[in-house]
Design goal:
This protein has about 110 residues and is of the alpha+beta class. The longest helix is centred in the middle third of the chain and has 21 residues.
């Protein structure tokens, strides 16, 4: 993976074409890049992100920002109650408990 200006590029190698190709994965818009060598790939990734930002500016649109850190999760009432109880037992807010649990699970 590669990162530039908060955007993350995922890279794969196409053995038949003998080329690396990638896509910015933390956008809904499709932003791709490719290169035959690592140096070329890095430049293509940065250029693609810069082109995306420029394109948005030219259209008067705000570029999609990488994740805001906020998301809504819908669960059944029983699970909501159980999670809230776990948070209270640990003397944490529900948000802090979910954050800590997700952080632990993502490692």
């Amino acid at each position: 993976m590669m990162e530039y200006k908060g955007y993350i590029g995922n890279v794969e190698f196409d053995d038949e074409a003998n080329i690396f190709h990638g896509e910015v994965i933390n956008l809904r818009d499709v932003v791709t890049f490719q290169g035959e060598a690592v140096k070329q790939l890095r430049k293509a990734f940065r250029d693609s992100v810069d082109d995306y930002l420029k394109f948005c500016g030219e259209r008067g649109e705000s570029p999609e920002k990488p994740y805001s850190g906020k998301f809504m999760v819908r669960v059944e009432p029983e699970l909501h109650k159980a999670v809230a109880m776990h948070a209270k037992i640990e003397h944490k807010s529900l948000n802090a408990w979910v954050h800590d649990t997700l952080e632990l699970a993502s490692k």
